[in-house]
From TrEMBL:
<feature type="region of interest" description="Disordered">
    <location>
        <begin position="1"/>
        <end position="91"/>
    </location>
</feature>
<keyword id="KW-0597">Phosphoprotein</keyword>
<feature type="transmembrane region" description="Helical">
    <location>
        <begin position="168"/>
        <end position="189"/>
    </location>
</feature>
<feature type="domain" description="Phosphatidic acid phosphatase type 2/haloperoxidase">
    <location>
        <begin position="166"/>
        <end position="278"/>
    </location>
</feature>
<feature type="transmembrane region" description="Helical">
    <location>
        <begin position="226"/>
        <end position="247"/>
    </location>
</feature>
<keyword id="KW-0472">Membrane</keyword>
<dbReference type="GO" id="GO:0005789">
    <property type="term" value="C:endoplasmic reticulum membrane"/>
</dbReference>
<dbReference type="InterPro" id="IPR036938">
    <property type="entry name" value="PAP2/HPO_sf"/>
</dbReference>
<dbReference type="GO" id="GO:0006629">
    <property type="term" value="P:lipid metabolic process"/>
</dbReference>
<keyword id="KW-0539">Nucleus</keyword>
<comment type="similarity">
    <text>Belongs to the PA-phosphatase related phosphoesterase family.</text>
</comment>
<keyword id="KW-1133">Transmembrane helix</keyword>
<keyword id="KW-0256">Endoplasmic reticulum</keyword>
<keyword id="KW-0443">Lipid metabolism</keyword>
<dbReference type="InterPro" id="IPR000326">
    <property type="entry name" value="PAP2/HPO"/>
</dbReference>
<keyword id="KW-0378">Hydrolase</keyword>
<protein>
    <recommendedName>
        <fullName>Polyisoprenoid diphosphate/phosphate phosphohydrolase PLPP6</fullName>
        <ecNumber>3.6.1.68</ecNumber>
    </recommendedName>
</protein>
Amino acid sequence: MPSPRRNAEVRALGALGVSASSSSSPSSPAHGGGGGGRFEFQSLLSSRAPGGEPPAGARLRVSDSPVHRRGSFPLAGAAPAQAPPPPLPEEGRLDLNPSFLAIALRSLLAIDLWLSKKLGVCAGESSSWGSVRPLMKLLEISGHGIPWLLGTLYCLSRSDSWAGREVLMNLLFALLLDLLLVSLLKGLVRRRRPAHNQMDMFVTLSVDKYSFPSGHATRAALVSRFILNHLVLAIPLRVLVVLWAFILGLSRVMLGRHNVTDVACGFFLGYLQYSVVDYCWLSPHNAPVLFVLWSQQ
Ligand SMILES: CC(C)=CCC/C(C)=C/CC/C(C)=C/COP(=O)(O)O
């Protein structure tokens, strides 16, 4: 009997449109293209007995491709192959032993793309929720880096208390750290924005052609955590801050700017960034240079 684990792996790959062993087109990235290799799940399916006969658990046909037929085992009950197949040459063979983690990640990505497309209801004027698009774009500006940076600088210049200056200086540091980290990650990961996105965003940096992680989501999580921890607000206002962050994140997917994972990871990153800011909290004691402007007045 094939082990349940093997069957599950083969089924999961089938669901993803990947056959466990097949002749693949070199140009097809979904089939590990670029190298023209075949996916040969050797360790899954070819743990043969020393005599060349496959173990009972390996009597599982996963592909009908000619290449695989040559190197695979027949279905249980079918006539056995006349001679054991010659081993595939090492060169040019792409061994792929997908772990459950890899399959889970691929499945997650497939779900991510599907869900993001479904939720992208404001991606264009003609989309099903196209009439809400202007509102979503307004929300987009509310989480943009420029208003937050300029707003913080303005408040800093007007602040007349040390406590206020300290908080604002740390908010400025948080916003700059966020811009830096998001730009670095976008440049490293280079995940393209969804195909249905229209690139009509208000002032962007060059890395903003990439989508992972969502800068709006990191900022929303960072700023809302910052506000909740450093401003004394009535409960309804606190709820409003959390709602703003959540809706801003959702609007990124609805506008077609991001996939769901870009936003989810963005929220997580922004949450972590706040912890870093809190840990490195700047004050006139540990960073007097930053406060020197005011001490001279
Ligand atoms: C000081 C400095 C370099 C300011 C630049 C501010 C700026 C242009 C930020 C870009 C904000 C933006 C468009 C982020 C993209 O957000 P996603 O949610 O689409 O990743």
